[in-house]
Amino acid sequence: MEEKFIKVTGAKEHNLKNVNIEIPKNQLVVVTGLSGSGKSSLVFDTIYAEGQRRFIESLSSYARQFLDMQDKPDVESITGLSPSIAIDQKTTSRNPRSTVGTVTEIYDHFRLLFARVGVPHSPETGLPIESQSASVMVDKILQLPKKTRIYLLAPIVRGQKGEYRKEMMNARKQGFQRIKVDGKVHDLNEILPALDKNKKHDIEIIVDRVVVSDDLGNRLADSVETALKASEGLLYVEIVSLPEGVKSTHKAGDVLVFSEKFSCPVSGFTISEIEPRLFSFNSPFGACKHCDGLGTELYFSEDLVVEDENLTLRQGAISVWQGVQERFYQQVLQAMSLHYNFSLDVPFKALASEVKKIIFYGTGTDEVEIKIEDGLKAIKVKKSFEGVMNSLKKRYLESESESMRDDLAKFQTLKTCEKCEGHRLNEEALSVKIAGLHVGQVSRMSIEKSVDWFNELETKLTSMQNQIAERLLKEITRRLGFLRNVGLEYLTINREAGTLSGGEAQRIRLASQIGSGLSGVLYVLDEPSIGLHQSDNDKLITTLKNLRDLGNSVIVVEHDEEMMREAEYLIDVGPGAGIHGGEIISAGLPDYVINDPKSITGQYLSGKKQIEIPKKRRKIDPKKVITLKGATINNLKNVTLNLPLKIFTAVSGISGGGKSSLIIKTLYPALNKMINKSKAVPGPFEALIGAHFIDKIIEIDQSPIGRTPRSNPCTYVGAFTFIREFFTALPESKSRGYKVGRFSFNVKGGRCETCQGDGLIKIEMHFLPDVYVRCDTCHGKRYNRETLEIKYKGKSISDILEMTADDAAIFFSSMSHIYDKFKSLCEVGLGYMKIGQSATTLSGGEAQRIKLAKELSRKATGDTLYILDEPTTGLHFEDISKLLKVLHTLVDAGNSILVIEHNLDVLKTADHIIDIGPCGGEKGGYIVAEGTPEEVAKNKKSVTGKYLAKILK
Question: Are strands 625-631 and 687-689 parallel, antiparallel or unpaired?
């Protein structure tokens, strides 16, 4: 009989203190608690890790080598476990080829649908393409210039892996003399070529070698028919040579493709085959040749070449010309200014557009007399000028020096590929249409639009097409429906996976899991509500309940109030964070936890504790406002943003409404370019006014603080340098002659050389996963014995790295320059964190707060604009309360705060709210409401206002 509980006994992983708990199965269970209290240690590092480990252990050793083997968690026993699947936030691919369509496999269904039901159209005429007969092909071949030598080829293998011995033997049996394998001609009567079965090959039978003339008779027609028969309707005509002195649109080496199936009679446009691979931008058969299927291309940007348009040409407006060759280019400009009558001493922005065009793209055939002086002699040369952009392109393509190419790459930026217009596919793939649209256009639709289009498609197809497409359409609409149900209706199928937020990626995986229809599985989720507007929360909760109703157990680590109230079982971990946490404070039905006096979460849910609404909001100074006019990137509809300074501003709105497009992709890079001379290219906008009111702009996002295990909070906030200097100044260090490098675990000298300062040694286990063991020499302390002998108050440098931020602040309380760094970590709610903890083990929310702590510990100058993207990610009510205190302290010091946020506790304490919407995707992109939280709450157009009104009562 199946057990009704997952019973955990004696869990001690990380900070857990011998936890014993029974979690009901086949229910929606929410685990909550302060950040760092041990929620993830219990759910992910104990329950999920053990479930996964047991499942993998049941497989053969051969299968195990391909899987990520989990370490055995520190727990006495767990019973009632099912195979477990984690849907976390760290699993999005950063590969530019990965899209929402490929991740969800919806695009695979699109490819199959277009291959089986799509109708090819001519790019020239727009008419459907018909098949060519053998006689039409013969007529076209005879139109080549007389005496043209050609090969008639029958392709039998096209870009496929294998040895193909059998196919070559068959060609020999049919009496053919020669074949072409990967471009080389082989005689079939000799030894057949041995092919590598793991590489892709092209094999064509040479059916005939012909010289075009009028007296060929039936030979050409017979050979064409033979070739079509051998290759199932395909014919290649390779032009070997053309007669001398004859002008032709073709050249030697060209291959003309003819198909019995598809060819445009007007333009000669031909599609050789319509297979699913033709619609894959990751295959050479479907990818656009110009951008290799990426949809974007690098180009030299005029904005990056001229960083400051207020400079004159003589002052060096063209930044790429600064340095060695500056003198030569000044002489070229001098000659051009005389030839085209313009001044070198006016700001670049005041030059006529024709003059700018000549400077950027050259004089064409027009020659200019240039006087070149090198200090010894002067010569006059009359020549055309190639232009800055053409010169850069040439240097970039011809240079073999990596450093030179890296330097030039600074002046490049991405733009949509001109050839495929960002659809990633070649002309052949984009010529195949269903109901007037090609696969690229269908992929550009939002999920909501796609659902409607596919629902109506049945009426636009013929009865035969409907028969073929019936099952495919059913599966596509089903999968799109799942994505819509988790609040992602605003996403497009061609959206790059790397641009998704952690919450979006997690909800995509959640939709895929529901689509798989598994039952009897333990699903573990990590804050799926991240980045989700309150209005979409109901959809998410319904989806999780559907997952449970399939017969699964669902455990969610979550801080969202609505999710907690909807749970069937609520577990509160605490009471504090880090060493102060790791205990189960309360567990049971939500009502039980709400009424439990020991539970901090319960106190917030019951209203005994709450984040207070400010009694008085800061007033806006109408003179100190940054105005961004005419923003149009993504779905923004010519938006004008007025951002008041010296106050706390929150940008809210429906997921996909355009918040990140406006703030992260337009406002921040535009201000960064003006203030810090950044090379990032902002989204298109008309004007930016008021940037002079701020002297610094800092974006605090959730990207990792370091990508290697050597990065840690202590080094990031800048405290470790001071600590090393302090240890170097100790009498014992001085007497031994130790320098600062002695206390670094990154360089030779003081570190343990056995593990090279890692504290761990990686052991390769061949068919098993790599094992990390504690270094035997230093016992995980990273330093050698001599370095560890230097102590202050009984603590070595290694002991200090093992301290929490709280302990370190007390330990260094007499040294203000070190104390301030750790105090700021404590203020943002990270007092529980070990200061030497590896950066790779930090969550996105923790990384963001470490960045905030670093900014807090710096000397305040005022006039700084801080931009934070969802800073409450991973935060409990109590942590949000601490964070808000810190942010309001920054505003009180004369700075400006701009947060993108869905959390109502943050919105209700803001001085000013800018609400973007009214919906996600195409229906969004407008500023719906702005003003104080009370004003936004009264605005009937604002969806956010409706939810704010409830909590402002």
Answer: antiparallel
Give the strand order in the sheet containing 184-187. 184-187, 178-181, 200-211, 149-161, 234-241, 255-259
Q: Is a pLDDT exceeding 70 seen at residue 325?
A: no
Q: Dump the DSSP string for 781-850.
A: --B-HHHHT--BTTB-HHHHHTSBHHHHHHHTTT-HHHHHHHHHHHHTT-TTSBTT--GGG--HHHHHHH
Other CB atoms within 10 Å distance of the CB of residue 502 = 24
Number of separate helices (H) and strands (E) present in the chain: 36, 35
Helix (H) or strand (E) holding 586, with range, is strand 583-588
Quote the pTM value. 0.79
Count Cβ atoms below 10 Å from residue 361 Cβ, excluding itself: 15
CA dist 450 and 444 (Å) reads 9
Residue 531 has pLDDT above 70, yes or no: yes
* 572 Cβ neighbours under 8 A, 6+ residues apart: 32, 33, 584, 585, 586, 587, 593, 596, 599, 600, 601, 602
Residue 588: count other Cβ atoms within 10 Å of its Cβ.
14
Residue with tokens 């969202």: 560
pLDDT, averaged across the chain: 89
Residues 6+ apart with CB under 8 A from 573: 31, 32, 33, 34, 37, 38, 39, 42, 581, 582, 583, 584, 585
Buried b / exposed e along 143-169 (16+ C-beta atoms within 10 A): ebeeebbbbbbbbbbbeeebebeeebe
| 610-659 pLDDT per residue, tens | 999 999 999 999 999 999 999 999 889 999 999 999 999 999 998 888 99
What span, in angstroms and rounded, lies between the C-alpha atoms of 75 and 41?
Answer: 11
Q: Which of 30-44, 145-159, 392-406, 591-605 has the lowest mean pLDDT?
A: 392-406
Q: Which two tokens stand for residue 116?
A: 């089986």
Give me the amino acid identity at 145: P
Which of 872, 866, 949, 873 is CA-nearest to residue 915?
Answer: 949
What is the rounded CA–CA span in Å between residue 203 and residue 234?
13
Q: ω before 575 within 30° of 0 (cis)?
A: yes
Quote the crossing angle between the two packed helices 463-485 and 447-460, to the nearest 10°: 160
| Identity of the residue numbered 563 | M
Tokens standing for residue 898: 């701009």
- As a whole number of angstroms, the distance between CA 890 and CA 670 comes to 23
Residue 437 region, left (φ>0) first, then alpha (ψ -120 to 50), else beta?
Answer: beta
Indicate if the pLDDT at residue 841 is higher than 90.
no
Cα–Cα distance measured from residue 801 to residue 328, given in angstroms and rounded to the nearest whole number: 55
Q: How far is Cα of residue 292 from the mean position of the Cα atoms in its chain?
A: 18
Write the DSSP string, 103-149: HHTHHHHHHHHHHHH-EEB-TTT-SBPBPPPHHHHHHHHHTSPTT-E
Nearest-angstrom CA–CA distance, 38 and 52 = 19
Q: Which residues pair with 807 in a beta bridge?
A: none
**8 Å CB contact between 672 and 936:** no
Tokens of 877: 């009510």
**Considering only CA atoms, which of 522, 391, 492, 430 is closest in space to residue 107?**
492
Helix 219-230 vs helix 134-142: crossing angle, to nearest 10: 130
Predicted local confidence at residue 215, as pLDDT: 85
